[in-house]
Amino acid sequence: MLVKQVMLENPQTLYPWQTLADACEVYRRQGVNCAPVLDGDGRVIGILTVFQVLQALQRGASFDTSVGQVMERDIMTIDEDMHFNEVSNLPIDRLVILNRQGRLAGVLTRIDLINKVHSALEATEYKLAVMLQSVHNGIIAVDARGDVCHFNAAAEKLTGIPAVKVLGRPAGPLLKQLGLGQVNPGVDSFLGRFTVGDRVLIIRQSPIQKDVDQVQGFVLVLQDISELEDISSQLDSVRNLNKELVGVIQSCYDGIVVIDRQGNIERVNASYGRITGMDSPEEIQGKNVTELASGQHKHLLQIYNEIMSGKSLVNMAVHTEDGEELIFSGSAVAGEGGQVGRIVVNLRDITELNRFKEEAARASAELKELRARRLADGEIVAESPLMRRAVEQALRVATVDSTVLITGPSGVGKEKLAKLIHRHSSRADKPFIEINCGAIPESLLESELFGYEKGAFTGAQREGKLGLLEIASGGTVFLDEIGDMPLNLQVKLLRVLQEQIIYRVGGRRPIKLDIRIIAATNKDLKRLIAEKKFREDLYYRLNVVPISIPPLKERREDILPLVTHFLNRFNARHGTKKRLGMETCRLLEGYSWPGNVRELINLIERLVIMCEEEVIEPHHLPGEFVEALGREGWRPQISEIVPLQEAREATEKELIRMALEKYHSLRRAGQVLGISHSTLLRKARQYGLVVQNCTDAVQN
C-alpha cells in the first residue's frame, strides 16, 4: 500500500499573508485541524494547526495576526509513492505529502492512518475467513483458555459435529469425542490415525505462539484419507501461528494458492514454494495465471480454465522430473450471483507418504548394508613411492566425481583406497555401499543392484525392494571384483554410468540416481575383453581414472610400517604389549607376502595372540611361514664383510638353532631344513647345540 492511497488529497491551503481569522474559516469549512502553508510559487513552507492558533491567541495575538507569524516552519514532507509501512510508525501526528514534482499532494494525519488501517484489516480478515472455509482440511483452533475459537466447514464435514455446538466452549469434550484425550498445547506433533464415524483421519497438532516462550493455544489439522488408500498423510508443522487467520493459512503444510475471477494470484503460502522448489513464492503473487504457462505452475492455469468452464472441483496428479508425486486440488469459492468469486488451489506432496510404504524394506536394506560396510579406522599406510603415488592419485580424484578403476592383486587394499576416496570427497556424509560382484549369485545380482517392484517374480517380497544402487543415491558405490560381473548386467551398468537412471526389475518408471562409481578388480580386464567375457565399452567407461596398487613384495618399504601399525592396533585390541625382535623384522621384510596386506594382518594378529613372550622372535613364527621363506629363498641380512666359511657356519648354526627351538623334533626340523635327521644331529653337536629337549633325541 502506498502513502497516496491513504492520504487526504487536495487539502485546503493557506498563505503566509493570510490572517488567523482566515485559517479558522478554513478549519470550519473543511472540518480539519491543520492546513499546509504555501508561498507565492505554490511551494510548501510550513503548516498551521488549530493548536498553534490557540497558543498564539493565548500569547496575545489577534485574529488579524498573519499566518506567517504563527505557522510551524520545521515540517516533515514525504513522497506520495512511499510505501505505507515506511511511514506507519513515524512518531508524528501529521505529514505533508508531495508529488513527484515536489508540489503539495495531500496531508496524512494519525486519525486518517488509523481509519485506513482498520478498514484494510477488516477486508483482509474477510478474505482470509473465506479462504480458510475453502480449505479441504479440517481446522480446529483452541485459544489460550482452552476454548474452541475456530471450527471450519471441513471440520464440520469430517467430524459430523456442527460448529455451533463447539465454538466458544471448552475443547476437552471435543478432543475426547475425537479420541485424542489430553494434549500438550506447546508441542508440535503428529497425533496419529483416527476413525471418526465412517471416516479415517490423520490429525496433526501445532502450537500458536506469539513468541518462543508464549503459547497462545494450538491448532488441530484434520485430513480425510478414507478415499485415498495409498496415502498415509501427515501434515508437517504449522509454524508461527498468531491470532490472525493469515497465520493459519501460511502455516498449512499443503501448498495453497488463491486466484481471483480474473486469474490474478492473490495469495501464495510458503508451502507452495517449498513443494515446487521456489526460493520465494511471492515472486508469482500478483501475476496472472496466463503468465505461468510453463513448469509446475502451468497446472494453475489448467485448473483455472477447468473451473471457469463450469467444474466446481478439479483434482490433478503430477509426476515431476525429479520423481516426486504431487496432487493439485482446485475448488471454486462462490461469489455474488452464484458465480465463481475465487479459486483455492491446494497442492500436496505425497512423495514422502508413498515412501512410508517402503520404510520397513528401506530400513532393513540399509541396516544390512551398514553392517556389511565399515570405513577404515585410519589413513592408509604408505611409505613406498609406488604406494604414495597411488594415495596421492586417490586424494586428487576424491575432489571430483569421476569414475575410478582400482587394479591390483588380491589383498593389497583396494577397498581401503576406495573408502579413502569416499571419505575425502564431497559425498563423505552420504552412503558408501560396497558390492562384491563375485560374491552375489548371478541370479540375485540384478535384483540386489536395481531392486524390484512388488510381484516382479516368484518369491519376491510383496511390497517390492529397493536396490543397492538406489539406496546409495547421493553417495558412492564400490563395485569390487567387477571382472566377475555377468555380461547381461554389464549392459545395464553401462546405462547407469551414462545416464544415472535405473529401472527396478518389473518396473517401468525411471528412477534418477546421483551416485559415484568406484570399481576394482584383480583380473586383467583387457584379457577378459579379448576373451569376450567383458564389454570393451564398459571398460572405457570405468577406466576414466585408473589407479594401480602394486603387490606388497614390490613396495618393501611399506612392510615394516604396516607391521608396526597393525601390531599397535592388535596390542590395543587385546590388551598386550608385544614387540618384534630385530631378526623377526628382517624376516618379515624379506618375505614375498603372496597374500599381500591381508596375509600380513592375519600373521600379526596370530603372533600377538599366540606368542606367550613379550618379544616376538623368529622361532615364534608359524611353521608354514618359515617353510615359505625356505621355498622362496631366504636372504640373510649382512651388516659387514666376513670370510665366507665363517659366514656359512654362522648362518648354518643359527638356522639349526631356530629349527630345533621351534619344532623340538630332529625329524621335523630336518624336514624343514632339507637334511636328514642324522645329519642334523651331527651338525648340532658340531656347533654345540642342545638336542636333549627334542622328542626323538633319545633314539639317536
From TrEMBL:
UniProt keyword Transcription regulation, yes or no: yes
Domain CBS span(s) in chain numbering: 7-65
A Pfam family assignment: CBS
Database matches in CDD domains: AAA (cd00009), CBS_pair_SF (cd02205), PAS (cd00130)
Domain (PAS): residue spans on this chain: 124-169, 241-292
Keywords from the UniProt entry: Aromatic hydrocarbons catabolism, ATP-binding, CBS domain, DNA-binding, Nucleotide-binding, Transcription, Transcription regulation
Phosphoprotein in keyword set: no
PROSITE patterns: CBS, PAS, SIGMA54_INTERACT_2, SIGMA54_INTERACT_3, SIGMA54_INTERACT_4
Record domain Sigma-54 factor interaction: where: 380-609
The protein, known as: HTH-type transcriptional regulatory protein TyrR
Species this chain originates from: Desulfofundulus luciae
Phylogenetic lineage: Bacteria, Bacillati, Bacillota, Clostridia, Eubacteriales
